[in-house]
Specification:
The complex is a heterodimer of chains A (113) and B (113).
Chain A (H helix, E strand, L loop, with lengths): L3 E3 L4 E4 L4 E7 L6 E7 L6 E6 L3 E5 L2 E6 L4 E6 L8 E8 L9 E2 L3 E6 L1
Parallel strand pairs in A: 2-11
Antiparallel strand pairs in A: 1-3, 3-8, 4-5, 4-9, 6-7, 7-8, 9-10, 9-11
Chain B lengths: L4 E3 L2 E4 L5 E6 L6 E7 L6 E7 L2 E5 L6 E5 L5 E5 L8 E8 L8 E2 L3 E5 L1
Parallel strand pairs in B: 2-11
Antiparallel strand pairs in B: 1-3, 3-8, 4-5, 4-9, 5-6, 7-8, 9-10, 9-11
Classes of the chains: A mainly beta (113), B mainly beta (113).
């Protein structure tokens, strides 16, 4: 059973702060990693993808991947109230289950003004 | 550029009935995956269609079936509905079978009463 674990939160940060979201996964052979943002009552929106160890930056978002530790994180700099949402970590495995994504339960983030 | 479209957006059905949900993938995409998201949970993989064939299947009973058409659009059918089938059903569109970026439609909220 491939598992994806996220700190369930809720995580609350003030506007302008850095929000740090974490995710661990059980399948060492996983090869693709994604962060989705989901507003209440809406569908998930892809915000970051990362495939190799290290950092990947896109605007205020930075994804970090450490395959040896089976850990992926998302940093949101200069957090805004509009960032308040649930953030889903998704992992793409290798091998027989190639093609599907395994999701964590999500971390609920609240950015207060 | 048309994104992923799903229909209907909301649906109420009675236990024992059958339901069909529809999805048109993002322009240029050829692979459709279906996910079920219960309240407070991450999306769970149902199955994936590529070249009009089911390529991967998650841990869902045979009551869940699907189809992909030559234009890459897809249907999800659920027979003998149970109360526990109430969830947000998400269609994800991607290019090819490997774990490339997947984009979600707005979802269909199914309520079984």
């Amino acid at each position: 059973q491939k598992e994806v674990e996220q700190n369930s939160g809720p995580l609350s940060v003030p506007e302008g702060a850095i929000a740090s979201l974490n995710c661990t996964y059980s399948d060492r052979g996983s090869q693709s990693f994604f962060w989705y943002r989901q507003y209440s009552g809406k569908s998930p929106e892809l915000i970051m993808s990362i495939y190799s160890n290290g950092d990947k930056e896109d605007g205020r978002f930075t994804a970090q991947l450490n395959k040896a530790s089976q850990y992926v994180s998302l940093l949101i700099r200069d957090s805004q109230p509009s960032d308040s949402a649930t953030y889903l970590c998704a992992v793409g495995p290798r091998g027989s289950t190639l093609g599907r994504l395994y999701f964590g339960r999500g971390t609920q983030l609240t950015v207060w003004p | 550029d048309a994104g992923v479209t799903q229909s209907p957006t909301h649906l109420i059905k009675t236990r024992g009935q059958q339901v069909t949900l529809r999805c048109s993938p993002k322009s240029g995409h050829d692979t459709v995956s279906w996910y079920q998201q219960a309240l407070g949970q991450g999306p769970q993989f149902i199955f994936q269609y590529y070249e009009e064939e089911e390529r991967q299947r998650g841990n869902f009973p045979d009551r869940f079936s699907g189809h992909q058409f030559p234009n890459y659009s897809s249907e999800l059918n659920v027979n003998a509905l149970l109360l526990g089938d109430s969830a947000l059903y998400l269609c994800a569109s991607s290019l090819g079978l490997v774990n490339t970026e997947a984009f979600f439609g707005q979802g269909t909220r199914l309520t079984v009463v």
